[in-house]
Here is the input.
Amino acid sequence: MGPMSAALDEPLAKSVGGRTAKVFADHLDLHTVGDLLHHYPRRYAERGELTRLSDLPLDEHVTVVARVAKATKKTYGPGKARLEVVVTDGGGSLTLVFFGRGVFKPEQDLVPGRRGMFAGKVSVFNRTLQLAHPEYQLLDAEDGEAAVDAFAGRLMPIYPACKQVNSWTIAKTVDTVLTSLGATRWAGTGEPLPGALREARGLVALPEALEKIHRPRTKADIAVAKDRLKWDEAFVLQVALARRRAAESALPAVPRVPAEDGLLKAFDARLPFTLTEGQEAVSAEIFADLATDHPMHRLLQGEVGSGKTMVALRAMLGVVDAGGQAAMLAPTEVLAQQHHRSITEMMGDLAEAGLLGGSELGTKVVLLTGSMGAAARRQALLDLVTGEAGVVVGTHALIEDKVQFHDLGLVVVDEQHRFGVEQRDALRGKAKQPPHLLVMTATPIPRTVAMTVFGDLETSVLDQLPAGRSPIATHVVPAKDKPHFLSRAWERVREEVENGHQAYVVCPRIGDEEPDPKKKSAEDEAERRPPLAVLEIAEQLLKGPLAGLRVEVLHGRMHPDAKDDVMRRFSAGEVDVLVATTVIEVGVNVPNATGMVIMDADRFGVSQLHQLRGRVGRGSAPGLCLLVSEMPEASPARARLDAVAGTLDGFELSRIDLEQRREGDVLGQAQSGTRSSLRMLTVIDDEDVIEAAREEAVALVAEDPELTGQPDLRSALESLVDADREQYLDKG
Here is the structure.
């Protein structure tokens, strides 16, 4: 630990006092000097320049710099007043709303022509963007010369803030901390980046980078600081991944080469169709990996319906041929049951070893989930330990201590982003030697993200859809601007049903949640209405537009048996319209379902909409997906929906998704602590930094696997790994 690391590890309370430190810890999760200095400005406002109000994100805490255009006050009675102040930046405008007794001070301060910084949460009311009860700081008050000087000529950092801590409070605190660090305590600083690398890449020292990111004098300062801080993040992360890869490739594994005339060959012989070229190519990569004496670590990406399950099943059967067992882990019971059903259907009598009429080449395929009856569970466990069952499909119930395998050779994990690395490791520990690992995801992941998040895996991509899949037509339904479009949408659903098909209606929430008493207040009139709910919509549809059809609901809080029952009846065609939450997002497969209406579609992410849409058009009839939204035409939310309507290419959409999201949650339900460590790196734009960092990391780890020569890098890694650990344990 260099003195610098020591300075950065100091608790904030030492430099800013206990009260401030507590607010920062509770609401921004910042505990040490280092945490605070790595809480970078989201952007910078120049004194003369104003934020683009036209791009404000909904439901986020923002700080804007703008000029007051007009102020109007309405009074409804004693103590009941509402002050509306319109501020503008020349490009867009925004309404600030104050209520009740809260109107007195702003009424005096916010007169037309005044400029200020305004901080609050963006909401929509009457189709205009507004901030309710924003905090503000005037920038050009006559008496505020000192305040103006403090900003003079400077770029003002605007920080990611929250309700309890606004941007200028963060700025002042950072200032205090940087001043107290001073030259003496910066001296002899610790540096996670090796000196040679810094020189070769022309990167500034860490203290200089932190100083310039928070107190830039010029735009060039910001650029220099960003280059350095991005490298830190990319490099530390890639070293962690390189070490994990090195450790794993050093592990021994049993090579699994399929028998000449075994189960796999029998299975292929009865396939009613030929594999696509992509499936052939990916299978070849997988079988090559399985034949080596190091564990395979492969990520298989493919659109919904690109035939990943088929590729995985062939790998599993190959391992069974070689005398091993294969396990498939699914994130939910519904999915596990579905995989089990489709695998046994694809295998036919090959899945019935030891049963009358089963094939002598066959094996047993067992299901293992948490809600199984005791007897079925006992039998499944027995079949696993004796090796009778070559293939097991299950939820993380598979990871439990009681579960023992005869000889586990391959683990297939479906929808990886729902599993932490720790869970993969626990399952691996079930094998006598590390098993081979195949991870599947239907969420298309751009290459750089794959390098960052799944940096410990090799990647294979299936990008053609198998023959016979139908295209899906997607349209945006602007419910506010054109209400008759919505009634037409329900007519379209009726038409699908009349043609013998079925449909989904997806809503953002269930509708039986307890109302939160804390949320009721004068500000309510300023909030957007709550998201549409399954139970309410189902009732409205039954009474109105879909009267006479068989409408049922499905959501996460139903009893598992009730869920399975509804799904089974929907699959069997006994239900016309299923009103559901996103529980149907992954893996529900009903080829006869051709229509989907997504309510409040703007409340879902781009990739999530794409995932949901993949549920229709799985059969030979074309699919139709309607995205219903009340957002105004020019809003960023509508632009996202138009993007989804405009392309069926998941990789294209995942790029849009990443570009639209904030840096912090680039990685969605971040797979690990990576999320906590990526603040400056934007995974899409910094492809070159990530690639270069990966090369440097691989070289360094090859040369000095224990990093003995890099104590500061080691401590940076430890803090990254601790964050990782915490995140996995949370996910567990």
Remarks:
- Residues 219-249 form the longest helix (31 residues).
- The chain has a mean pLDDT of 80.
- The radius of gyration is 29 Å.
